[in-house]
Each structure stands twice: as C-alpha cells, then as structure tokens.
C-alpha cells in the first residue's frame, strides 16, 4: 500500500446539549480547526467524506446538510461522498479514495447531536420491524444481553468492568474536550442504578453532542505542505452478521479478524508489546475488557484480569484510552474518529495524557448493536 | 412459489413516532426572533462575495467564510418560481391537510440573494407569473417559526 498520512486533526468539545449550535455549526468548527491544524486552506482539499446517520439527525441525506460547512460548496463545488456509520469507517473510505489515485487529500468529517432525538427510539428502529422492534429492543438492551453472556461465560466479576469507568473518567479530567470528568471509586460505579442489569448507569457511555474532522493525504502531498504527518501502517474493517440472536455475544470474531488483518499489514507479531498506546471504542465498560481480548492484548476470558493488572493505566505497559475514551465523551458516529485523532496526538507528542515515547498507536471504532462491525487502525510515527 | 392457501400478512408500524428538538443555531434563532417580534426579515451577508443569505446560515459555502453581517431584506419581493399544488399534503407539524389548490413558490425578497420558500395566495384575478411582486401576510399570533407568515400575496404588492 502507498503511504497515507494523517496531517490534520480536530474535535469540538463534547457536551450533553449543544442547543445553541446546529450540526452545520459543529461541522464548520471541526473542519476549520482541522485545516488550521494541517496548515491548509479549503482550496487544498481534494475531496470530502462526511459521516452521519439519518436517524440521529432526524432527516434524510443528513450528510449533505453539512456540505457547505465541510467546504464541499467551495468555489464551484468539490466531490463529496458519505458514509453512514462510525467515523473510523468514514476515514477508511477517505483513505481508499486517495489509494484509488483520484485524490491527493481527503477531509473526513463526522458529526452527531444525540440531544436532539431519543436514542432509545432511534436505536430501536435499527431492529427488525417484524420480530424485534415491538419487543422494545434498543442499543442498551443489546449491550446488557452481551454483558450478561460475557460475564457468565468467563465469570467476570462486575468490579472488573467498573475499573474501566474509574480509569477512563479519571483520565478525562485533563481532557478539555471530555463530557464527563470525575474521580470515582469502584463502589461509586457499582452503587449507581442498573437500568439494564448487569450494566450500571455509570458504566454507559454518555450521550454527547459534537463533531470531529481529520485530513488524510498522500506522502508527496504531506511532504510538499511541510506537514507533521502520522502514518497509517495497517487498517482493517470487518462486520458480523446482522441478527443479534445469531451471534455469540461473549466474543467478537469481526474485531478479532479486523485486528489480525491490521497487525499483519503493519508487521505486528505481538500487539501487547508492539503497540505503545490504544484508543478503543467502549460504548459500555465491559466492552473495554472484551475488546482487549479480541485485539489480542490478552487471552480470551482474561479481559477482567488484564485491566485489574493495571497494564492499561496511564503508566502501564499498554495504556488504553488515556483521553478518557467513550465513557467520558461519546458522540455516536464521531466517537471512532476521535479515537484516531487521540492516537495521532499521542504519536505527535501532543496528547493531554501523553504516553512517553509513543511510536505506534492503535485506534478502534465500532458501529452497530453490541459491536457488530469493527475498524482497527495502526498508526505510526515514522 | 407462495402456496395458494397461504394468507399473506403485513404489519403496520402503529402510532410510533420519533420526537426531535432541532437546534436553530444562532442564525436561525435571530431570524425567527425578528420575524416574530418585528415582522422583519433578517439575512446574513458574506463579507467576501456580498451574497445575502435568506434564511440565514453561518457559513457561505462557495467562499467557505463565516457570516457575521446582518442585513434587513424584504418584506416585499418577487416570485422566482412557483407551482400550484393540486394534491393534498399533510402538514408534518400540524397533521392537518391543507385545502387544495394552493400556490407554493420561491420568493426572492428585495435585497436577498437566495430564495425563501413559502405558500403563495392564488390571485383573485388572473394567474401567478414569475417576476410578480409579492408581500407577506403575517400571522396574528406569531410563534417564532415559518407559520408566522401565512403566505405571500400578489394583491396589494
């Protein structure tokens, strides 16, 4: 694969209700900040990918509503295309457009405002109208079923999942973009109500409003513009079958496969040793444990023991979510793109909780109920 | 092949609905506040290309510049394009069917560079034509939304 660089990154602060701003306002903020970060003008950008979901935006063709703000109408107009899914999938598409040879640069944008709709009803609409929707299934219910089957399979004590909340919310204290920042104890987490057991309220990623953008370019473009590039060393995107009831919820073959393919591309044999820092998408606390297993950071069933070993703390062997992760700021769609952005900041040495001498980072995004599809990125400094 | 004696069924989605609270943003909020309080149309002008946007928005797409300069436009304007609707349309906000026929058009308010979409009152005499002068008829109890304008009328404009 030709070398592709990330040369500009930006995110808005994330908060529960940005009622004073439209999606387009958030998109403009992220786009202009990303251009500024890269030292580029909109005229330099070859094409634009927006990432959104019509249901969360409450309109069809939601991506086009932010076109002007993403610079797609600049001059006589630019090529703009859209991904419905997580921001990591938008970035994947943006990268392939450069690899096609048609463009030297892509601006990838993601936006969402969970505050405007009702997340329970919207994620309920993801399900089959004949057999599942009327039963009231939604994203939280799906996650609760997954957590239950994961805990049961490997005898994971709830306190080990709670550790992800304690760690990530504490990491977020230094992150000015985070939505939730707090010092918590395991007991605080386990004392919070259980809207869908075994999941506690504090173990659920918050619903945030915000946007993020990044700029991908060819190697020659990055050099020509004197940018500070971070390189894509490996990437893979895999999805499981659609029906929740037909999946083995205590594991994630799609993530395992995506990780292995990305590692192979990047020449990684031992991810726990070869990766310096990871930003992973945990929509609920237990997912940080389960995804750690499927990313090959520990053996299957050992996700609880792995986090308990303190290996994923800021000063640990493999820090996970030093930014505070999705448990601290979670604008669906945007959240995966933020994982890539935080990984880039780590490799530039500009992260809020900087991991010393980080040379290689992993960023992970997911989309769909209980992690149906996964996208794994390996980013490198050199 | 479907068996001849099989009774094929469908499922309706019942009374389900998706509630939304769309943010108007700073530009939309000012536009509707002025419309409601002063029956005034305010647009945003691009400092670079001088295009005046109605309804206002915060970015000029072609220039990729933020918009900050408020200017008053209208209230009168001209018909840019129009049609006459002869099929009943259920208003998504009120759930009511609007009696047909009724006029619907793009109105270029005086001083604006873009068109406002609204209802056109069918003239008492003659037909609607592109370029005809129109004036807004404002609702008595303004709420700060598009219904603060009843329609645009060619009569008296």
Please, could you describe this protein's structure?
The complex is a heterodimer of chains A (382) and B (157). In chain A, helix 3 packs across helix 13 (334-348) and helix 6 (158-171) crosses helix 11 (285-294). Chain A is α/β, with parallel strands linked by helices. A nine-stranded mixed beta sheet of chain A has the order 3-2-4-5-1-6-9-8-7. Chain A has helices at residues 23-38, 54-57, 87-99, 119-124, 139-154, 158-171, 186-191, 219-224, 253-266, 271-274, 285-294, 303-308, 334-348, and strands at residues 4-11, 47-52, 79-84, 105-113, 209-218, 230-239, 277-279, 360-367, 373-380. Chain A has a domain at 4-118 and 207-224: Thiolase/Chalcone synthase (Peroxisomal Thiolase, Chain A, domain 1). In chain B, strand 7 and strand 8 (116-120) form a beta hairpin. Chain B starts with 24 loop residues before the first helix and ends with a strand. Helices cover 9% and strands 31% of the residues of chain B. Chain B is mostly beta strands and 157 residues long. Chain B has a five-stranded antiparallel beta sheet, with no helix packed on it. Chain B has one helix spanning 25-38, and strands at 41-45, 52-53, 59-60, 65-66, 69-73, 77-85, 102-109, 116-120, 133-138, 149-153. Chain A binds chain B through residues 18-22, 24-25, 28, 42, 55, 58, 67-69, 71-77, 113, 115-118, 121-122, 125, 129-130, and chain B through 11, 13, 16, 18-26, 28-29, 57-64, 66.
């Amino acid at each position: 694969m030709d070398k592709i660089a990330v040369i500009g990154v930006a995110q808005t602060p994330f908060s529960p209700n940005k009622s004073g701003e439209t999606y387009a306002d958030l998109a403009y903020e992220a786009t202009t900040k990303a251009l500024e970060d890269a030292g580029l003008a909109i005229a330099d950008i070859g094409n634009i990918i927006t990432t959104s979901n019509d249901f969360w935006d409450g309109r069809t063709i939601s991506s086009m509503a932010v076109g002007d703000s993403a610079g797609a109408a600049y001059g006589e107009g630019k090529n703009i295309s859209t991904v419905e899914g997580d921001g990591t999938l938008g970035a994947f598409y943006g990268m392939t457009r450069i690899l096609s040879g048609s463009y030297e640069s892509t601006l990838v944008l993601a936006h969402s405002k969970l505050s405007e709709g009702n997340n329970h009803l919207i994620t309920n609409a993801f399900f089959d109208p004949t057999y599942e929707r009327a039963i009231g299934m939604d994203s939280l219910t799906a996650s609760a079923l997954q957590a239950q089957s994961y805990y049961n399979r490997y005898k994971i004590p709830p306190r080990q999942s709670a550790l992800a909340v304690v760690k990530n919310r504490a990491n977020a204290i230094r992150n000015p973009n985070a939505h939730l920042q707090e010092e918590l104890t395991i007991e605080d987490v386990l004392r919070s109500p259980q809207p869908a057991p075994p999941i506690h309220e504090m173990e659920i990623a918050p619903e945030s409003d915000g946007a993020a953008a990044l700029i991908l370019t060819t190697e020659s473009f990055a050099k020509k513009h004197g940018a500070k590039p971070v390189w894509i060393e490996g990437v893979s995107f895999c999805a499981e079958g659609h029906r929740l009831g037909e999946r083995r919820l205590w594991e994630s073959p799609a993530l395992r496969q995506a990780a292995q393919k990305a590692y192979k591309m990047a020449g990684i044999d031992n991810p726990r040793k070869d990766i310096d820092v990871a930003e992973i998408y945990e929509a609920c606390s237990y997912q940080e444990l389960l995804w750690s297993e499927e990313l090959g950071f520990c053996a299957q069933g050992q996700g609880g023991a792995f986090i308990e070993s303190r290996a994923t703390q800021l000063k640990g062997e493999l820090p996970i979510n030093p930014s505070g992760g999705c448990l601290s700021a979670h604008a669906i769609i945007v959240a995966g793109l933020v994982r890539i952005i935080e990984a880039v900041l780590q490799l530039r040495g500009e992260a809020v909780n900087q991991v010393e001498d980080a040379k290689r980072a992993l960023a992970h995004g997911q989309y769909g109920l209980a992690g149906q599809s996964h996208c794994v990125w390996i980013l490198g400094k050199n | 092949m479907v068996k001849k004696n099989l009774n094929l069924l469908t499922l309706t989605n019942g009374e389900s609905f998706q509630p939304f609270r769309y943010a108007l943003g700073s530009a939309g909020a000012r536009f509707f506040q002025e419309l409601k309080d002063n029956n005034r149309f305010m647009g945003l002008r691009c400092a670079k290309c001088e295009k005046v946007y109605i309804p206002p928005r915060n970015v000029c797409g072609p220039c990729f510049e933020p918009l900050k300069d408020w200017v008053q436009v209208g209230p009168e304007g001209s018909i840019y394009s129009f049609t006459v609707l002869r099929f009943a349309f259920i208003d998504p906000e009120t759930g009511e069917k609007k009696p047909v026929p009724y006029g619907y058009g793009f109105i270029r308010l005086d001083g604006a560079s873009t068109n406002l979409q609204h209802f056109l009152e069918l003239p008492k005499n003659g037909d609607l034509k592109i370029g005809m002068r129109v004036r807004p008829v404002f609702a008595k109890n303004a709420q700060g939304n598009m219904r603060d304008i009843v329609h645009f009328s060619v009569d008296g404009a």
